[in-house]
Amino acid sequence: MDSKRIVYMDHAATTYVKPEVLEAMLPYFTEQFGNPSSVYTLGRKSRSAIEEAREKVAKAIGALPEEIYFTGGGSEADNWAIKGAAFANRAKGNHIITSKIEHHAILNTCEFLEKQGFEVTYVSVDENGVIDLEELKNSITDKTILISIMFANNEIGTIQPIEEIGRIAKERGIIFHTDAVQAIGNVEINVKDMNIDMLSLAAHKFYGPKGVGALYVRKGIRIENLIHGGGQERKRRGGTENLPGIVGLGKAIELATADIEGHNARIRALRDRLLNGILEKIPYTKLNGHPEKRLPGNINVSFKFIEGEGLLLLLDQSGIYGSTGSACSSGSLDPSHVLLAIGLPHEIAHGSLRLSLGDKNTEEDVDYVLDVLPKIVQRLRDMSPLYENFIKGGR
């Protein structure tokens, strides 16, 4: 076993910054550092760089540049979309629809709004994590002002029928927001064709810098400001812009959407090689999420009779970085809300592993994981009295 080998397979958590992105950003830390609101040449060059990045983001999702607003990340974009639409349209109604498997940036924001007098319906998903469209339709009332459904799930990788959801919302005159943080660079997106009114994204998920994101807001959609201040972002988000970060986001999204088909083909081939190997070499293993309608680099599997936290620690010792369906590392003993929503019992949800592949992963990485992972799972099972009883034919 090569203990020095490092295999990073947690790209759904964050990605490295590509050299081309860093190169584009560097001048805006040291040379082109002018405040974009300043009228002199240095400031105007900074303003121009921001507008160029805005055009790149708009082009990547089929939007207009004036519909793109830069934020401090995906969570801020989600908060702005949900709170902004809720408060701006409160006179029309107070009902919001979302799903049970959303990111906590959505779920916790909706929980906050419930305390402000809003009503929220959390729509179910099937065993593959796909939204129940009939339940969605039946949840709509004359008070419904917003539907927010994520484009692709961050844990199990399932891609939702976004165009259909958008059509349902459009027919009823309801604003439709999607958290597309995991989807950018992995799925072809056109906000007009898909009837998307608002869309959130974050640069660090597609090889850009952390701490910068964007919110697309279709022209004509009314939302309140989340951050009040000066006249930045067309008076919609106060505060001096994160100039290097915005430039980096623009370059990163340009690279990420240049050849999605080619990128997906390569990543999907690696993923399938890894997934098939895991299912073949490790018995009592279950794939979580839709078998086909899923992000190209996402693998989420549950291993019976083990705890995910122990699995992660042993993988870490072998230089393999992934994540688990158990939230132990965040101080909670509760398993993932996503895995519970698709019907997994607690004990199986606790034994889950997410591996998310990226641009630098190779076949050698896959083979290394396939060599190490089965041994670790077996080691953990050998320590489990539940597994021992199971093997002996007990219950």
UniProtKB/TrEMBL annotation:
<keyword id="KW-0411">Iron-sulfur</keyword>
<dbReference type="InterPro" id="IPR016454">
    <property type="entry name" value="Cysteine_dSase"/>
</dbReference>
<feature type="binding site">
    <location>
        <begin position="74"/>
        <end position="75"/>
    </location>
    <ligand>
        <name>pyridoxal 5'-phosphate</name>
    </ligand>
</feature>
<dbReference type="GO" id="GO:0006520">
    <property type="term" value="P:amino acid metabolic process"/>
</dbReference>
<dbReference type="InterPro" id="IPR000192">
    <property type="entry name" value="Aminotrans_V_dom"/>
</dbReference>
<keyword id="KW-0408">Iron</keyword>
<feature type="binding site">
    <location>
        <position position="182"/>
    </location>
    <ligand>
        <name>pyridoxal 5'-phosphate</name>
    </ligand>
</feature>
<comment type="function">
    <text>Master enzyme that delivers sulfur to a number of partners involved in Fe-S cluster assembly, tRNA modification or cofactor biosynthesis. Catalyzes the removal of elemental sulfur atoms from cysteine to produce alanine. Functions as a sulfur delivery protein for Fe-S cluster synthesis onto IscU, an Fe-S scaffold assembly protein, as well as other S acceptor proteins.</text>
</comment>
<feature type="modified residue" description="N6-(pyridoxal phosphate)lysine">
    <location>
        <position position="205"/>
    </location>
</feature>
<dbReference type="GO" id="GO:0046872">
    <property type="term" value="F:metal ion binding"/>
</dbReference>
<dbReference type="InterPro" id="IPR015424">
    <property type="entry name" value="PyrdxlP-dep_Trfase"/>
</dbReference>
<dbReference type="GO" id="GO:0051537">
    <property type="term" value="F:2 iron, 2 sulfur cluster binding"/>
</dbReference>
<keyword id="KW-0479">Metal-binding</keyword>
<comment type="subunit">
    <text>Homodimer. Forms a heterotetramer with IscU, interacts with other sulfur acceptors.</text>
</comment>
<feature type="active site" description="Cysteine persulfide intermediate">
    <location>
        <position position="328"/>
    </location>
</feature>
<dbReference type="GO" id="GO:0044571">
    <property type="term" value="P:[2Fe-2S] cluster assembly"/>
</dbReference>
<dbReference type="GO" id="GO:0031071">
    <property type="term" value="F:cysteine desulfurase activity"/>
</dbReference>
<protein>
    <recommendedName>
        <fullName>Cysteine desulfurase IscS</fullName>
        <ecNumber>2.8.1.7</ecNumber>
    </recommendedName>
</protein>
<keyword id="KW-0663">Pyridoxal phosphate</keyword>
<dbReference type="Pfam" id="PF00266">
    <property type="entry name" value="Aminotran_5"/>
</dbReference>
<dbReference type="GO" id="GO:0030170">
    <property type="term" value="F:pyridoxal phosphate binding"/>
</dbReference>
<comment type="similarity">
    <text>Belongs to the class-V pyridoxal-phosphate-dependent aminotransferase family. NifS/IscS subfamily.</text>
</comment>
<dbReference type="InterPro" id="IPR015421">
    <property type="entry name" value="PyrdxlP-dep_Trfase_major"/>
</dbReference>
<comment type="pathway">
    <text>Cofactor biosynthesis; iron-sulfur cluster biosynthesis.</text>
</comment>
<dbReference type="InterPro" id="IPR020578">
    <property type="entry name" value="Aminotrans_V_PyrdxlP_BS"/>
</dbReference>
<feature type="binding site">
    <location>
        <position position="154"/>
    </location>
    <ligand>
        <name>pyridoxal 5'-phosphate</name>
    </ligand>
</feature>
<keyword id="KW-0963">Cytoplasm</keyword>
<dbReference type="InterPro" id="IPR015422">
    <property type="entry name" value="PyrdxlP-dep_Trfase_small"/>
</dbReference>
<feature type="domain" description="Aminotransferase class V">
    <location>
        <begin position="7"/>
        <end position="369"/>
    </location>
</feature>
<feature type="binding site">
    <location>
        <position position="240"/>
    </location>
    <ligand>
        <name>pyridoxal 5'-phosphate</name>
    </ligand>
</feature>
<feature type="binding site" description="via persulfide group">
    <location>
        <position position="328"/>
    </location>
    <ligand>
        <name>[2Fe-2S] cluster</name>
    </ligand>
</feature>
<keyword id="KW-0808">Transferase</keyword>
<dbReference type="GO" id="GO:1990221">
    <property type="term" value="C:L-cysteine desulfurase complex"/>
</dbReference>
<keyword id="KW-0001">2Fe-2S</keyword>
<dbReference type="InterPro" id="IPR010240">
    <property type="entry name" value="Cys_deSase_IscS"/>
</dbReference>
<dbReference type="InterPro" id="IPR017772">
    <property type="entry name" value="Cys_deSase_NifS_bac/arc"/>
</dbReference>
